[in-house]
Amino acid sequence: MPPTSATPRNKMESRELTLRYGSKVAIHQVSLGIPEHRVTALIGPSGCGKSTFLRSLNRMNDLISGASHEGSVYLDGRSIHDRALDVVDLRRRVGMVFQKSNPFPKSIFENVAYGLRVGGLKDKAKLQARVEKSLRGAALWDEVKDRLDESALGLSGGQQQRLCIARALAVEPEVLLMDEPASALDPIATAKIEELIHELKSTYTIAIVTHNMQQAARVSDQTAFFYMGELVECGPTEQIFTNPREKRTEDYVTGKFG
Ligand SMILES: Nc1ncnc2c1ncn2[C@@H]1O[C@H](COP(=O)(O)OP(=O)(O)OP(=O)(O)O)[C@@H](O)[C@H]1O
User: Fold this and answer.
1) pLDDT (tens digit per residue) in 133-149
2) 104 lines ligand 1 (CB under 6 A)
3) I want to staple 1 with a disulfide (CB 3.0 to 4.6 A). Which of 18, 32, 57, 202 is the partner?
4) pLDDT of residue 16
5) Distance, CA 79 to ligand 1 centroid (Å)?
6) CATH of the domain at 122
7) Does a structural domain hold residue 2?
8) Rounded to whole angstroms, what are the CA distances from 48 to 117, 158, 244?
9) What is the pLDDT of residues 11-53, one digit of tens each?
10) Beta partners for residue 151, in sequence order
11) pTM score, two decimals?
12) Structure ipTM
């Protein structure tokens, strides 16, 4: 992995991206680069468009009726709205982890194997190897290796969230989008997720929505502050928290509103 000080290329980038739900503008002309092998935190008050922006990066908003966009999003320099692009493959390359862990009512093994089976992988040994690799990648293997056939619903909240991360990793994505992945977890489980995010960035590119200012400061390399659908400011996390350019950013990160 390159040293953190070197400027990496943008793995993803939005240019003047506007997204509407019906006639309501949710994000307006957002241009933002997501650097490779870095963690980008998206912060801002409720309703400012953070999740909408995140979902735009793998076209999850396409699934919401009435949603429409203008502007562009690029993955490795190629438009994700290109007609020739396969959306299923886009979502494999740009995976997502949600606020509420959502394991299937199946065994731990089958939760992780699910995407691989859907993708056509049948070989048992290969499936086992990929499931183990994914669970190790999500820092869950040691806790579940002796109970892979038990229901995923018997895991704790923090374990379920790491299982969902393992499920996302199983299909070998390049980018991981995380929408408040730790907001429902206790401080110990949250710390594990934060540690994991730190480890994952050497392999993946990560964008995370968080309401927790300390969490953004701890886990991210760059922070983007959204306000009322606009990207107010984006910069190195330390600068955004200690020396923001914009008054609105300063007011938000110092807790004056939000
Ligand atoms: N499916 C939807 N249909 C219509 N409007 C929506 C939909 N999802 C979000 N919105 C609206 O778009 C705007 C941006 O919402 P979004 O969820 O992206 O904000 P957010 O910053 O992630 O908020 P929060 O921090 O509360 O999750 C809000 O005004 C919201 O009400």
Assistant:
1) 999 999 999 999 999 99
2) no
3) 202
4) 98
5) 24
6) 3.40.50.300
7) no
8) 37, 27, 18
9) 999 999 999 999 999 999 999 999 999 999 999 999 999 999 9
10) 107
11) 0.94
12) 0.97
4 lies in some domain = no
Residue 77: domain span: 10-253
- pLDDT at position 5 is 57
Percent of the chain with pLDDT over 90: 90
Ligand 1 atom index nearest CA of 54? 18
Ligand 1, atom 23: closest residue by C-alpha: 47
Q: Is 208 in the pocket of ligand 1 (CB under 6 A)?
A: no
How far apart are alpha carbons 251 and 248 in whole angstroms? 5
Kindly report the protein residue whose alpha carbon is nearest to atom 30 of ligand 1: 47
The conformation of residue 8, written as its DSSP 8-state character, comes to: P
Place of tokens 């927790």: 212
The H or E element spanning position 213 is helix 213-219
The verdict on the CB of residue 49 being under 6 Å from ligand 1 is yes
Q: pLDDT tens digit string along 69-103?
A: 999 999 999 999 999 999 999 999 999 998 888 89
Domain count across the chain: 1
- CA 161, distance to chain mean position in Å, is 13
Q: Which among 246, 178, 243 has a CA at the least distance from the CA of 212? A: 178
Does ligand 1 come within 6 angstroms of the Cβ of 48?
yes
Would residue 258 count as lying in a domain?
no
Nearest to 138 by CA among 74, 94, 84, 181: 181
In a domain, 113, yes or no: yes
